[in-house]
Design goal:
By secondary structure, this protein is an alpha/beta fold. The protein has an 8-stranded mixed beta sheet with strand order 1-2-4-3-5-6-7-8, sandwiched between helices. The protein is built from 12 helices and 8 strands.
Length: about 300
Amino acid sequence: MFALLPIAALAVTQAKGVLHRPGIDLPYTVYGKGEPVVVISGGPGFTTDYELGIMKGCKTPNLEWIFLEQRGTPRARLDKGTVNDFTMAKYVEDFDALRKQLHFAKWTVIGHSWGSMVAHSYVAAHPDRVAAVVFLGDVGPDTTSFQPASDNVDRVLNADELAEEAKLGGNAVTGPADDATALKLFMVQLPGYFYSRENADKHRGDFVEGSLVGNTENLVLPALAKENWDVSKAIAKYNGPAMVLQGRQDLLGESPAWKDRFAMHQLQVVFVEKAGHMPWMENPAPFFSALDAFLAKNAM
């Protein structure tokens, strides 16, 4: 038997490229060599930078990690875009175009938060092109988890933070269009995304100036509402390996995971104790134990 090396040691090769799509270019970065794993960032509007810790903490060897900068993120801005540029179908088409460009028949899909919604839609649209799927910070197969999310964030904030949140004009679901103001609002709300304030403070450096386009969510959410986004029936077409890996204290609660489990009977649900919306940052040992076991079995 050989010892498993951290992916940080294995990912010695790095390739950068651009996916040309109608009206926009989407940069992407590839790390490592092996079975492909695409990681979809949240927000919507955040870069993939905050997710690099998932790759770095993973010990499963022989994986090729792909990070695409989605439309409406700082490296793929659509400042003059409309709601029609931010439909879920556009996001799914972008990722499948990347799969084709990289010549993968199938790949493992990992989606976090908003990225979990894109992952749901991708699985629903292309079940035959998914080797395995992991939902992190799982939103579930519809938008009903949005409603309690803001309350779950606000219940953690102190009086000064609630006053600043009101001043900045937003909540955990919608916010200001200006990038700097949107990021400032997110940083005020950050304790609500973590199990502990101490952990939230430790990870403030993961969300810096230039990591978020504020107005993207203000275009994505109307697009979702217009189509009445709900893939709870469509994802049942996928019968491959699937897992929800969720912080027990995630602001979205547990109901998204159980909705997914009802729709996908093969789905494995794993809760990471004493962790919020980004459990790999907060309680890495059980998070990576579960993720590595899943990837070693299903992505290889």
